[in-house]
């Protein structure tokens, strides 16, 4: 494993259940980079706020460089540590990767983020949280199923793991295991999810978090509503 910086190890502020953190953990794994994983213990963790004023995970500290937001972190890692390229050379395939990543990061994940789903529960009704999340995930998945139909191989855009897979795998896990989305109309996405579950790089992000991790931070149901 390579170290991010000759003197200090990279630090990733993360949470095992955060899909945005999982994208970055996948990239670090694929690029063979060592890092210290700091799992946040509360939303609004003061340590996290120091590196990301938005209070979201992930945030990366690499020597004197501090980067938050998974997209920025992935671009940074790709440029600084080019091993295991996250993008294919082919411009058309590259554009499909950008598009898949953008659908997940802009049109799905923010609409099913824990804070927003809890807010919907408060201003509309707790019963609306699940349908709300399912509606927005489904809408994005309809687009992704069509987008990838002519490009998928073993993975989303061929037989190599690229950016699209880094975004898809954690989002599929959220949809299937957290939000119980019916996947019948998404055979390709379901097939990809099954492949991810059998692939070691993805298995490490799907692994059950250690016992001391507070899973409720990223549950869409607050403990009092469970
Ligand atoms: N665009 C940001 C989104 C970050 C984000 O929404 N992170 C989620 C976890 S996936 C989070 O910290 N949620 C806590 C909250 O909702 O307060 C990124 O890609 O890093």
TrEMBL record:
Residues 8-85 form the GST N-terminal domain. PROSITE patterns: GST_CTER, GST_NTER. InterPro entries: Glutathione-S-Trfase_C-like (IPR010987), Glutathione-S-Trfase_C_sf (IPR036282), Glutathione_S-Trfase (IPR040079), Glutathione_S-Trfase_N (IPR004045), GST_C (IPR004046), GST_Zeta (IPR005955), GST_Zeta_C (IPR034330), Thioredoxin-like_sf (IPR036249). Residues 90-217 form the GST C-terminal domain. GO terms for cellular component: cytoplasm. One of its GO terms (biological process) is L-phenylalanine catabolic process. One of its GO terms (molecular function) is maleylacetoacetate isomerase activity. NCBIfam families: maiA (TIGR01262). PANTHER family: GLUTATHIONE TRANSFERASE, MALEYLACETOACETATE ISOMERASE. Belongs to the GST superfamily. Zeta family. This is Glutathione transferase. It comes from Ambrosia artemisiifolia.
């Amino acid at each position: 494993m390579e170290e991010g910086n000759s003197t200090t190890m990279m630090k990733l502020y993360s949470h095992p259940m955060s899909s945005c953190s999982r994208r970055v953990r996948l990239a670090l794994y694929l690029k063979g980079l060592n890092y210290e994983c700091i799992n946040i213990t509360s939303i609004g963790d003061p340590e996290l706020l120091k590196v990301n004023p938005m209070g979201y995970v992930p945030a990366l500290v690499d020597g004197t460089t501090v980067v938050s937001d998974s997209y920025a972190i992935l671009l940074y890692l790709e440029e600084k540590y080019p091993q295991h390229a996250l993008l294919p050379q082919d411009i058309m395939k590259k554009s499909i990767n950008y598009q898949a990543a953008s659908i997940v990061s802009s049109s799905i994940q923010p609409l099913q983020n824990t804070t927003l789903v809890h807010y919907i529960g408060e201003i509309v009704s707790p019963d609306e949280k699940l349908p709300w999340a399912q509606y927005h995930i489904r809408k994005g998945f309809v687009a992704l199923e069509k987008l990838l139909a002519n490009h998928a191989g073993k993975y989303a855009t061929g037989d190599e793991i690229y950016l699209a897979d880094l975004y898809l795998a954690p989002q599929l896990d959220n949809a299937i295991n957290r939000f119980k989305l019916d996947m019948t109309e998404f055979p390709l996405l379901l097939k990809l999810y099954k492949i991810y579950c059998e692939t070691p790089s993805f298995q490490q992000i799907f692994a059950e978090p250690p016992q001391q991790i507070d899973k409720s931070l990223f549950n869409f149901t607050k403990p009092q509503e469970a």
